[in-house]
Design brief:
Layout lengths: L7 H18 L3 H7 L4 H10 L3 H5 L7 H15 L1 H20 L2 H13 L4 E4 L15 E4 L5 E11 L6 E7 L8 E7 L5 E3 L13 E11 L4 E2 L5 H37 L1 E2 L2 E2 L4 H29 L5 H26 L1 H4 L5 H8 L9 H15 L3
Parallel strand pairs: 1-4
Antiparallel strand pairs: 2-3, 3-7, 4-5, 5-8, 6-7, 9-10
Helix pairs in contact: 1-5, 5-6, 5-8, 5-9, 6-8, 8-9, 8-10, 8-12, 9-10, 10-12, 10-13
Length: about 375
């Protein structure tokens, strides 16, 4: 459980993803942020690597999929956090779907996954609800033929414009905590529309948009899991995704550290390299300390998940700490670079605004503190 060294297979995976990111993502990162676009060619190249296939075939317990996913997310996050979300979130959601779908819907998804990179979005957030799932208002009314009609608006969903389908969390009864269910909604369904994308602070290349559902008919076999189990499904599945988000933050922080390392080795101040100044070196060491601590929490969460153990507490701790850490490291990088860090001459300022999302998506910090405290009440602390 506590052997944090990478296996030979994981080192090969890390090096392969690192090479992919260097060739496919980093050369176009800045342009895609400016254009607010994500090219299909990168998604096709990602599918061609074969990395996503393992997530559609391997068992839930006894594999290293969550640990491997953390490695992938970290390396993609190092290159560009928007691309990390574009490429890895659909892999997580598609694996989730394969665990719930049966019959023809499952066969259709399996065939599509074999043919290319299938982008699945996740639509849960609503403006009036925020992180209060009991206040979600999008409705799913069951019809006489056992289908459902979905109505309402979701606000902050990623990849909608590229998505083939979306997982929509909707209300099937008035029971606050027990009245939510999940549905798979094809994006070409009648009544589905995408609103104007949000002008996000960071992750500029990533599509974050609202989704309108107007009497959208969803067959019963597109309901995921049991009716009313939506809250349980959040708790069951999102810990793995949160672990990946924390790993992405580690990648962002590593990139910021490398920027200031390189800057200090080449910038001369008072007749010598900037790294000859002890204060500059020690600030880099503080970054390294923060990165190491965050990665340790990520690996603890990932290894517990791979062992089939409850890791909700560890995932929340990893995301909490990584979200705080990556803001400290990237803000420090901008400060250490001075004007060069503030005027777009390096990637540091982009890293800082991209980093802010880590503490917001899939539950802001207060939500994760509640999860940790509730787990401590049940099981005690470490």
């Amino acid at each position: 459980m506590f052997e944090f060294a990478l296996t030979p297979a994981q080192r090969e995976l890390r090096d392969g993803v690192r090479a992919f990111a260097k060739a496919q993502v980093m050369p176009i990162s800045a342009k895609c942020a400016a254009d607010r676009s994500l090219p299909q060619s990168v998604a096709d190249a990602w599918h061609a690597t074969g990395y996503p296939e393992a997530y559609y075939e391997a068992p839930d317990v006894g594999s290293t999929l969550v640990s491997d996913g953390a490695i992938i997310s970290e390396e993609l996050g190092y290159a560009d956090a928007a691309f990390a979300s574009y490429l890895m979130l659909p892999v997580f959601f598609n694996r989730l779907l394969l665990g719930y779908l049966t019959g023809e819907p499952r066969r259709n998804l399996t065939d599509a996954l074999g043919a290319g990179h299938v982008i699945t979005s996740f639509a849960a957030s609503e403006r009036a609800a925020g992180s209060d799932f009991t206040a979600l208002a999008v409705s799913a009314d069951q019809q006489d033929d056992c289908s459902y009609r979905l109505n309402g608006r979701k606000e902050y969903s990623t990849n909608l414009r590229y998505a083939k389908q979306a997982i929509v969390v909707a209300r099937t009864s008035a029971d606050g905590m027990g009245g939510l269910s999940w549905f798979l909604v094809p994006m070409d369904s009648e009544g589905v529309s995408i609103g104007e994308r949000w002008d996000t602070l960071g992750l500029r290349a990533l599509d974050v948009s609202p989704m309108e559902l107007d009497n959208v008919v969803v067959p019963e076999d597109h309901r995921l899991g049991e009716t009313g189990k939506g809250i349980w499904m959040f708790n069951e599945h999102l810990a793995k995704s949160r672990t990946g988000i924390a790993a992405m933050a580690v990648g962002i922080a590593r990139r910021a550290r490398d920027v200031v390392m390189d800057f200090g080795l080449h910038r001369r101040v008072y007749g010598d390299k900037l790294t000859k100044m002890q204060d500059y070196r020690f600030r880099i060491v503080e970054m390294e300390k923060e990165i190491a601590a965050a990665r340790g929490l990520v690996q603890l969460s990932a290894q517990k998940a791979d062992a089939g153990l409850d890791h909700a507490k560890e995932a929340s701790l990893a995301k909490l700490y990584a979200g705080e850490m990556v803001m400290r490291v990237t803000a420090e990088a901008v400060l250490m670079l001075g004007s060069a860090g503030y005027t777009g001459q390096t990637v540091a300022d982009k890293l800082m605004v991209d980093a802010r999302h880590v503490a917001i998506v899939e539950g802001p910090e207060p939500i994760h503190k509640e999860i940790v405290y509730a787990t401590m009440l049940r099981r005690g602390g470490y």
